[in-house]
Design goal:
mainly alpha
Amino acid sequence: MERMAKRKGDDEDNREKKPKIRRSTADAIDYLREKSSNEKEYRIRKREIQLQAEKQDQTQRQQQAMFSAMMAQIQQQQQQQQNMMSLMKTLMENYKKA
């Protein structure tokens, strides 16, 4: 057992020990600053995209409203034309009878 204990101890002594790297608080602060900056840019970009989508949605709603108004106007004109045709037909029939 003693031999095994010595071997294990010898191996540990012969290995190169890596020096411990202590990070300074400045590294942590820099990391947090960068993270905060990235998050801020992300939020700004997300808001820009959201505003752009809202603008497109509003434009679509306006176009849909204009289209609906045009269709209503066309239907109204068609109805007026039908009424005029009925009136003309009635007048022609009355003229033939007279």
